[in-house]
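Hi everyone,

Forwarding the result from last night's run.
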Amino acid sequence: MKTKVLVILSLLILSKSTFAYQGEIDNFFKLYESGKSLEAVDSIYSTNKWISQKSDDVHNVKTQLQNLQSLVGKYQGKVLLGEEDIADRLTHVTYLALFERQPVRLEFVFYRPQEEWIIYSFSFDDDIDDELESVSRRKIAGY
């Protein structure tokens, strides 16, 4: 009985921990999907008090994200590609954003120095062709 309670408590703690950063990602996409790309970037970075030291970088991300649809067409949705966790302290979450012309990879890295998750980095790119080819070849070859 004690083992079952311990397992259930552990799962609840992990799910609460995951929910913290997933809520930030969900809010980012909610804002982005409603046409508020600048607010989406502000929202995702709001968990990190150190981000003000990189205001030029944040400004560049905002500008690039705001201009993205003019390059790749209208936003069509998103797909979670996966997430990787390191010692329940660093988590890398990757989404594929679907646009009319082509997909764009969005990557969120969260860090938990103490109890709360903060955004460590956010980036996006459309340079996924080589990676897709490499993964596909490995799967086809069976290794």
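Residues 5-16 have pLDDT under 50 and may be disordered.

Cheers,
N.
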